[in-house]
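A quick aside before the break. I want you to see a complete sequence-to-structure record at least once, exactly as it would be stored in a machine-readable document. Don't worry about memorizing anything.
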Amino acid sequence: MSETKIKIAIGGDHAGFEYKEILKDFLKDYEVKDFGPHSAVSVDYPDFAHPLASSVEKGEFTYGILLCGSANGVAITANKHNGIRAGLCWENEVAALVRKHNNANILCIPARFVSIAQAKEITNTFLNTAFEGGRHQNRIEKISC
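That is the input. The structure line, written in tokens, reads:
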């Protein structure tokens, strides 16, 4: 029986650049594609969040990870895509709940509000927590407009 490799799309903006680079190394056991940016020069986060969200929505990647200062901008942008459930996670318990209850497929991390260690822990929890389904599936089916 072959195991499906988890594929992760990662990106963000200039405020999340340093964390993105560190998380890419942390995720070395996964197949990861960097959607940018590729430097800490100021950029517009939708230019990176939209292509990443589209790739997750199309099923090209299992999950996405977006990092910016507050993670609000990337979460708002990603959630404009019908097949995306992007969750803003600033602590480990929130990361577990967005997977268990919301079946989130994009993790949004606020780089200015968590440490590198927290970002790694949040990422690990997000990637290793299963969706509970059941009553939560009924709610998810009501999300798209």
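Two observations worth writing down. The mean pLDDT is 95. The radius of gyration is 14 Å. We'll return to this after the break.
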